[in-house]
Amino acid sequence: MDDRGLAADGTIAREGARDRVPAAFAPVVSAAQARTVAALAGDRLHSVYLYGSIPRGSAIPGISDLDMLIALHDEPTDADLAAARAIETELDRGFPQIHGAGILLDSKRSLLSEHERHDGGFFVACLCTPLLGEDLAQYLPRYRPTSLLARDTNGDLAAMLMRWSARAAETTTADARIALARTVARRIVRTGFTLIMPAWGGWTSDLHRSAALFGRYYPERGRQMQIAAATARTPTTDPEVISMLIDDLGPWLAAEYTAVHGEKTSHP
């Protein structure tokens, strides 16, 4: 059966769960929870979520990241951001089974706002697994793989390409090039998938499957997207690969995306 990641009613199913966390990553999740409560306890912390390969159950020790979203009652402050960076550093140093820790911070108001309904709201409702606190998904709609969802999740690729191009020009170390390649490749594959998502009629976060599905609709760009998926998993310092992503596949994808789904509106 061709699993399209949908619930019985045709809406996108939430993709992760606490009981899918691989045993090797359970201590990391417990530590992340404890450190978050210690650093942001009190009136500021609303809820905490996992996302990515760990709650999906596909994480690989030594390769996969720990990804977490922290929702605050109010807008994040500089002190909140510093606390999140400190938690990332502690987890990265203390647990060799993760490649790194990444923590997003946002406010409850922002995540539930109308402007974020098909971006941050979708992210919480479908891609995040509740870890602590009240689940904001109960206040959000059920989502379908529509062109509106495609536009609001990844319709800003052109703006991202400008930032990446500037960053590539300033990058001088191998570690920085690897980080850039991974960021760019992941976003391009996800954008390639959401380009064809409404036509395919489902959802997946698997990058290799995303690239394969994209290739069904755009076979002339399929090989480049496969390279992007491979780079997302195993980043490279090869300037030709990075240039292909930022200067060739990326611009084409941004133009095609706008032609098919329109461009994401900027935040007021």
From TrEMBL:
Record GO terms (molecular function): transferase activity
Alphabetized UniProt keyword annotations: Transferase
Keyword field contains Transferase: yes
SUPFAM superfamilies linked: Nucleotidyltransferase
Gene3D superfamilies: Beta Polymerase, domain 2
Protein name: Nucleotidyltransferase
Source species: Streptomonospora alba
